[in-house]
Prior knowledge:
This protein has 9 helices and 14 strands. Helix content is 31%, strand content 24%. The chain is α/β, with parallel strands linked by helices. The longest helix is centred in the middle third of the chain and has 20 residues, at 109-128. An 8-stranded parallel sheet has the order 9-8-7-10-11-14-12-13. It folds into 2 domains: 4-112 and 298-313, ornithine cyclodeaminase, domain 1 (2-Layer Sandwich); 130-294, Rossmann fold (3-Layer(aba) Sandwich).
Amino acid sequence: MTTIEKLPYLSAEFLDGLTISTSDVVDEIERQIIGQRRGEVWCAPKAVVLPGDDRYIMATLGVATEPRVLATKSLVVNPRNAERGLATLNSLVTLLDAETGLPLAVVDGNWVTSKRTAGLSAVAARRLARADSACVAFIGCGVQARAHLEVLADLFPLQEIRAFGRGTGNRDALCRMAETRGLTAVASDTAKEAVESADIVVTTVTLVPEPASFLDARWLKAGVFATMTDLALPWLPETMAVFDRIVIDDLVQEATMSRPMVKPELVAGDLTGLVGGDVSGRQSASERTAFTFRGMAVGDLAIAGLAFVRAKAIGALDD
Length: 319
């Protein structure tokens, strides 16, 4: 039995050593999404606190039957952390036994957030992107862009990336990462130049302070798939009707939010419907599709639970 005095901490370095693959991540998220429909997984809408000083504070809660865990994630985004030499986003996931409530482990929340965000995009991309997608454009080139590059390169026959961001450091690092995977990497001078020839567009623009809209969906070519981790805030709202099909992460969660990510009449359904077959995926090679999301507790639950199971399997955790 784990006690507070010896509660294990699964660090990012340790978690990287578990060699959890892209297919592991995507399959587990899909499995837990299906579990929700079967009444085997329960998640609450994410809770958000905005103190009004550019901090973004969020929490998620999810409970699974298999593995039998309760996962809560607490997260703070603070742009002033850069002045302190700290990451802008920091978070922590706690795992309890879902039956007894006894503590099981604490997990690096930044690692979980990175994996689950890219994983959610990948779940949508499996159904909404063209299978022959070869060029990915990144608007925003930080941690989330790198995580998306990793999963998309595993899922699609990529040949090229195009990168556009506010600073050259992250952009150049993303380009180097792509080149190590044998891809051509282009550092774009403008956002339009980056996206207009892309088969997949990934936007991971920092949410605090809230970004001004600058991306025009009319720049996108036919057949594109766009995944928007940033609530679609960088996209000009009046151009979103260009998409033939827009899927969001969670209709129930979205109904609790004070401001919708996109106009409700443009939304075809949510990720649960897409995975369950109630919402159609891509219908033609020329269709423009999009997935925009706030983040789902089921994603955090799936990835933290998967990491816990893998850690137990190698004997890293006490029974």
